[in-house]
Amino acid sequence: MDTHRARSAHRSLSFFVLAAAVSLGVAGCHGDFSSAFVDKLISRTDKLFDVAHTTGDGFVVVGYNGRIIRSEDAGESWIEVESPAEWTLNQVEFVGDDGWAVGHYGIILNSRDGGKTWTKQESQTEKTLFAVSFIDNLHGWASGDESTYAWTDNGGESWNVERLEVSQVGLNEDMSLAVPDIMYYGIHFVDAQHGWMVGEYGNIRNTTDGGATWGSQHGSLLDELKAMGVIASDVMSLAAFFRVHFTDPMNGHIMGGGGAVVSTTDGGQTWHWVSRDGTHADIPGTPIYDFVRPGSDGKLVAVGSNGLTLTSDNNGANWAMAKTEADVFTWLNGIAIAESGKGIMVGGKGSVLLTSDFGKTWRPTKDQ
Description:
mainly beta
């Protein structure tokens, strides 16, 4: 591996190393389901980074070293999938039976049959890609390391790669060397025009023209910190944001490091802190790595470090810990819930847990 690749690999793994550093295994007073992995498809050595719903009871999981597994019965049983990826896959996205997975060294995989088979697409970059978002089977975007983002309007038959200029919001001259580029961990488009990317140093970037131009929206969060009396109200005081999701062009949430949760009702013109570093009584000050909005009635489910699993029934105003049949002390990095209420969350130590009630209760998969 050359020097550039070594640096990129080290840096792009930093998000997951943070999670792995707190990984203690899967155990608890309800029983230790990690000890029953012998000769199973899913091993306690597996690192599973994301899961996506396809159609019906179909789900696909991706992870370390290009691992792909899929289920046709909402996680009750699993099937190994031949993967053309040799590098870690960070996120997977499906629109019906059409799916895309992105990962290290710019790898992009595509499936047209619900995740049964996969082929490589030419990404035109070797930068690590952390996230991908498609609004239909043609229009998609991906974000990654060194301020990189990619887009396609033909389902990935061809990808176009660009680099965002570093936002100057909350950044002074003395910081320019410390912030040479941004790792964008999350991306989400609600339609062909409106999209958001989030990443290091609390950066929130937005577009209203399909990605032709990108603005910055984290200034309102810095203003709120100043109003709270936080002395160092610059980007260095903001934790990394890992995931962003909008229900429409106006209403969205972002979550990330230190239990950070922010929300907007005006398309991101103003963002408001819900929690940071444990300031909300219901939200621990530990990283939140992923979240979903199952249904359209204000439900939110978030997962993160040390088995953190939170649920909200009122659009994030109040939160409660979800119930699990086995205590989970490793990181949880990906979650997907279908319209039926069936869902799956995945993480370290080969953790795969299932729900059938929109994330209120969870149990280990039978393959564990």
